[in-house]
Amino acid sequence: MRWLRARLGQVDGERGSALVEFVFIALVVFVPLVYIVAGFSAVQRGVFAATAAAREAGRAMGTASDPVTGQEQALRAAQLAVEDQSVEATDVRVEYAPEGSDCDAAGSYSPTLTPGEEFSVCVTVTVRIPLLPEFIDANTATGQFVVERDRYVDS
Predict the structure, then answer these.
(1) Going by DSSP bridges, is the β-strand pair 140-148/118-126 parallel, antiparallel, or unpaired?
(2) Whether residue 10 has pLDDT greater than 80
């Protein structure tokens, strides 16, 4: 039996080393890999949440009777859409941009909800990466939805 171990390259002093090597490889490779997958899934979930929130906020704002009620409904619709994606709805911003511009110009525009008006709804969601401190909030996802008010609405 000893000649078989020698032939296969197994020496008596190497018993149990495979277990140690496996644990070492698992810690060095698999734990960071799982963390990276969890981080990417958190970011992707934030992107989905921002996109869905912008769509729902745009629909709420586009069907509102007046701008004040519309902004309240849009904010609540965005919060519900973000919560639906299992993202904390504490860091949700709903802003509006004029027709033809992107979300970089959002914030200074307020829709009037006149018939035929076009504007963009921009929702920004702060995405938390697992195990990172709270003060690191540079990970944001922004969703944009273009709203076109119906030209033939009762005023």
Answers:
(1) antiparallel
(2) no
